[in-house]
Amino acid sequence: MEAVIYVIDNTFRLLRRQWVLSLLTLITAAAMFWLLGIISMASMNVRHLMHKLENDLLIQVYLKKNADVEYVVDEVKKMNWVSDVKSISPEEALEKLEERLGRQSHATKLIGENPLPWSLQVRVRSIGDTDILAKALNTMQEVEDVVYAGAYIRRLERISYLANSGVVTMLILALFITSLVIFNTIRISLFSQKDEIFIMSLIGATHGYIAYPFILQGIIISGTGSLLAVFGLIYLYGSGVKILQEALPFLPLIVEVPVLLRFYMLLILFGIGVGWICSYISVSRYISVTTKPI
């Protein structure tokens, strides 16, 4: 029990002695974890959007006049890139057209006989398979035409790739800066206490007894920084989502409370983990030079 009291008391003594450095490190850690959170949430929303688009992505296939619809549906279902196929009769297609036209739907009566053919709505498993599937459908003899937003899909794929690449780069950079700042802060604390550490090692203090206050210092700074970052994220993300939903109500965003809470908890635990690892490495290296490894 006395050892626990000593570790806690010595930890807060270190924080008080170097309160300016600890405060600067806390601010830096909070800013970096906040940036990590923003980047991660942006990446999550991009993936959510892409997943939503994949689920809603349809290829419209128009069949020739005398085509065997059931046969074509069965053949399309066998293709690996297809997740679902729905056949639409000329009558259904005409009803949907009249719904879209609204008040001008009476214009369809002037056409006379329904000119619309049988068609298929083909749902793709992945956006990347769209072009391959469209080419395969075009080779079928029963198919008259294939319509899909090819250029739009390729642009989305490009944006998704660039976004993911940028996210990974920024995450690595932010993590490196945060780890370096915490590592150096603990290093400075160790050097400022070098005489006390040397005396304690001479009188038989264990390496863990010496090291734990410094490790706990790093955990407190990093953990508090991640907690502050979460508070900032809650305010910013909530305000941002509200603005985007008012301006772009059709844009799918992650708003589920359990998902967001899980993310915030993971960010706090991540901050604690970074503080522990950086502090442990810094203390281990220092003690390995002065005495021997922990």
Q: Which descriptors would you attach to this protein?
A:
294 residues; alpha+beta; Alpha-Beta Plaits; 9 helices; 4 strands; 72% helix; elongated
Topology (SSEs and partners):
Layout: H1 2-17, H2 19-56, E1 58-63, H3 69-77, E2 82-88, H4 90-101, E3 119-124, H5 130-138, E4 143-147, H6 150-192, H7 194-202, H8 207-247, H9 257-290
Antiparallel strand pairs: 1-3, 1-4, 2-3
Helix pairs in contact: 1-8, 2-6, 2-8, 6-8, 6-9, 8-9
How would you describe the overall organization of this protein?
The chain is α+β, with helices and mostly antiparallel strands. It has two domains: 188 residues, no CATH class; 95 residues, Alpha-Beta Plaits (2-Layer Sandwich), CATH 3.30.70. It is built from nine helices and four strands, in the order H-H-E-H-E-H-E-H-E-H-H-H-H. The protein has a four-stranded antiparallel beta sheet with strand order 2-3-1-4, sandwiched between helices.
